[in-house]
Amino acid sequence: MSHRRKDKKRAYVIAGAGVAALATAAVLLPYASAGEDSQPGPQLRTAKAAALMGSKLADENGDRTAGWFLDGKSKNRLVMNVLDQETAERVEQSGATARIVQNSKAELKKVSDTLAGGASVAGTAWSVDPRTNKVSVLADRTVDAEGWSSLNRTAAGMDGMMSVKRSSGEFKPFHGGDQSGGGGMDDDGAGMGDDGSGAGDGAGDGAGDGAGDGAGDGAGDGAGDDGSGAGDGQAAEGVLGGDAIFAAGSRCSLGFNVEVDGAPAFLTAGHCGNAAEQWTSDEAGAEALGTVADSQFPESDFAILNYDDAQAQPVSAVNLDPLGQGQGGTQEITGAAEAAVGMQVQRSGSTTGVTDGEVTGLDATVNYGGGDIVNGLIQTNVCAEPGDSGGAMFSEDKAVGLTSGGSGDCTQGGETFFQPVTDALEATGAEIPAAGGGQAEQQ
């Protein structure tokens, strides 16, 4: 995992970068109990191949399995949790490593349902962790002594199936604040300055240097000459995953370019889509970009916007240099994939650029407070900050998630949660266009 705070300078590079081979065979290795160290296991060429095998084995073995994960940063070794030796042998005959565990999927779901039914408190997040075979609960710094005690009382009644830990930060959506010095979408009015974990040099100053200067020196200039903000406005064809999008004094990041019935559109976070209907590619509002067609938040966290220029031909790619530092090109996106615990991922956003890490939980629920509870998220140890909301999370050439929120920053690290792209595509009827035309592969 890496945390990199970068100089806040924007430019757009539209070079292609292609990727990743598909998968091949695995080898048979012995299974282990949950308390034992896993054996050196089957290695698949890509995370995609391992994820496909994991889903297949889970479907074939039903309630005798209890989740699975990828073990090893570059090896993509598939470990399947099972409840008995017979299932373990069957799983290993298919080429995965089996691990016998105590808690079933149904039992762990009851724990999650208890939390969802009212046992949680604002400022918490939880997901099933297949590595520990427990429901893992995180409580942020806003959870007081009473809330902390309540969570631990709940855990005590769960027969060892629930763990509770502290997160040093505060769970909140990672939308950007008002570029003109106000709070924008940030309830605390932190704006986009460095003191508010954003893109600029001073708390509440927006993305620029001086109070009330906003994000740039002139219309369409984005970050201004000092390179401290979110970047220049540009034509729709040049807006990629991770690039800044603006609306009514707010900033988010574009997720992925898509098509709906052949018409150009793009995905971003739902809490961004709820904030404004019209979005532009420049902070001054001169470059019209898209109009919200559907926005879902809370419960889910995705929005789809139709390009205002119906003839636009946006590129299906992620900007690897959204801060314009000359450190990367683009990553072509050829389809979407489901996340898997242990999957290595990258995230691109308009505040912190490109960061990386791994998936740590699936089907996560985050209680952001104020009644904003979002379900079905991907939990990661990838860092992000305000303004990165909606930005692209990807693995190789596959779209995986849209940045929702989390805790911490890219100086000290933290947890970040993502809306699964596959769910957003299914809900909106959108497709990721294949390079050179046609429909991309969706998994």
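(the above was protein one; protein two follows)
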Amino acid sequence: MRFTYLIFLEDHEIFTLVDDLEASEGNDVNFYSWLGLEPTATEEDINRAYRKLSLAVHPDKNPDAKSKEKFARLGRIKTILRNPEERKRYDFFLKNGVPKWRGTGYYYSRYRPGLGTVLIGLLVLISFLHYIILWINYFQEKNRIRHYIKESREIAWGKRMKKQQTKKRVFVNDLSFMVEGDHVFFLADDGGEYVLDEETVVRPKITDVIVFVLPGWFYNNIKKQFSVKKTNSLVNSEYEKEGFSSDDDRNEVVDNLRNKTRRRRGGNKRQNSKLKS
């Protein structure tokens, strides 16, 4: 099996030459006919035909833009026809036809994608998988809420699930819930009560995938870093103008700058509200 695989890899060059020759000279042209030979030609005939055709397609004597490709192709064809084993393989494909499917390795080597195409393909694949994961998490979260609602009601109302209007606190998986009529509330450690409703689970959108989220994340972080640098620059300028006797004085300036920023933002909001009114 290993031997067959190695031979198949060697056939890739033959397949490539067949495709290129037919694309350049026509579908009815093969290695022999291009050289003006018969399949029974001897090695001497091949050498003679090669020398004759090489003069016609040589880049130095032919202004054709594709002359270099033709000359290189001619050299490879001559090498195959002069090699008994490779010529035998070519004669086999010439008689039986070149296979339509030549393996993924052949097509990858012939139509190898560029770096940009690979990166775009990976980005699309990652985004697609991320989108699927978002939907899986969405349904899992809805099922989790349904489970807690069902378990809480069973504990509060009994197995017959007879609804009661009174409040009853129950525990499910060490989590605290309050059942009140049709509603089930999650009791958080901070004392807050949050109603359990599967409809509150946010449906994933295509804009939630990583290809859209990452640029926004980078933008916000860059904006945050710029804001911090701007604040530090203002503090340093105040430091140079006033001079501080202690760290407390410096902290006071920082607080004042922050308050000014808040007032400006608040002033903008008030101004916007006046414009709207």
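Reviewer note on protein two: The first helix runs from residue 2 to 25.
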